[in-house]
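# nightly structure sweep
# worker-07 picked up a monomer target from the shared queue
# config: single-sequence mode, recycle default, output format = structure tokens
# input follows
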Amino acid sequence: LLLICVPIFVPIAKVFGWNLIWFGVIITVLDNMASITPPFGISLFFMKEVAGVTLGAMYRSAVPFVIALFVCLLLIVLFPPLATYLPTLMNG
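# output follows
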């Protein structure tokens, strides 16, 4: 999915003048959310088989993580320096 979406969305992010590191962090958080939410919760289906529980139990157990990821996403969107602080320290 990333191989399909990133080449499409990176030029759009450049046109809007967004920081590409910030954009990459947002894409990564969204990708994590996508892997644990229905209907394509790939990680949920895998863990369901490993744990031997029902799919409904896996969906219910993923809710706190989805909420936490949504809060992180909201903070990154509202305060972009949170996502770019460490990379700017690496650049000097």
